[in-house]
Specification:
Shape: globular
Structural class: alpha/beta
Number of domains: 1
Number of strands: 10
Helix content: 25-40%
Number of helices: 9
Strand content: 15-25%
CATH topology: Rossmann fold
């Protein structure tokens, strides 16, 4: 233990760790300082239904897409930082209402990432969130969807381009029995939703399975600049 602590001290002197968000110096291996962690914990709340997406099904969010959340999401994706993603997932799981929302009969389905982007980033944030949430809540997890085309990120498209950028980009993954999902509650999982176009394209593929319900939950939702906000707590 003494040698391990000594190594940490030496490394910290020559290669100091910094908070990925505010850049303040942290202890060895700590990527989110206590101040930023507390700020994140205050932002992440219970599932709230949104009211301004293009989806004709319920989309729930755990937070509004503030500058702080935006910074964290961008660092996770483009640094990239799986460690910060796991911290974000941990904060989400501490919300007691998440377990009530993602009941044990729900099937959690991550929004898929194209293999080229997955190879570059090393992980799919939606997939990791779905696995963490399903393990925590006792729900089912299924990578039921696959991404067929390497599309431009929706964030890089204008509002008109977002409508067609994902056309024919998703399909059901091979090896799954459609009967296994008939009459089930299917919950799409992603990190961020803006217009909801990605979620809607994914849901279109799931509806062919004749589920009892398709809905979605995201860590954060970027509301349109119309004064709209959450409609209130979820109700199932």
């Amino acid at each position: 233990m003494f040698i391990k602590d000594l190594v940490k001290t030496v490394v910290s002197v020559f290669l100091p760790f910094r908070c990925h968000v505010c850049k303040n110096t942290t202890q060895f291996g700590v990527v989110l300082c206590e101040s930023c962690l507390q700020k994140l914990q205050a932002i992440i709340g219970p599932p709230q239904i949104t009211s301004d997406t293009r989806c004709d099904f319920a989309v729930y969010t755990l937070s509004s897409y503030s500058t702080f959340v935006s910074d964290i999401v961008k660092i996770i994706k483009y640094r990239p930082s799986e460690k910060l993603l796991r911290i974000l997932a941990g904060v989400c799981k501490k919300n007691s209402q998440l377990e009530s929302f993602l009941k044990k009969d729900a099937v959690l389905i991550p929004v898929p990432m194209h293999s080229d982007r997955l190879q570059k980033r090393g992980f799919n944030q939606a997939d990791l969130l779905a696995e963490e949430f399903s393990r925590h809540c006792g729900s089912h997890y299924s990578p039921l969807l696959q991404r067929l085309r390497h599309t431009r990120p929706q964030a890089d498209c204008n509002e008109e381009e977002r409508l067609t950028n994902l056309d024919n980009a998703f399909s059901l993954a091979p090896g799954f029995s459609p009967d296994a999902f008939r009459g089930k509650r299917l919950v799409l999982i992603d990190d961020v939703a803006t217009t909801g176009t990605t979620l809607r394209k994914c849901a279109d593929r799931l509806l062919s399975l004749r589920p009892a319900e398709v809905c979605a939950i995201v860590v954060s939702h970027s509301y349109k600049k119309t004064g709209l906000s959450c409609r209130g707590d979820y109700g199932q």
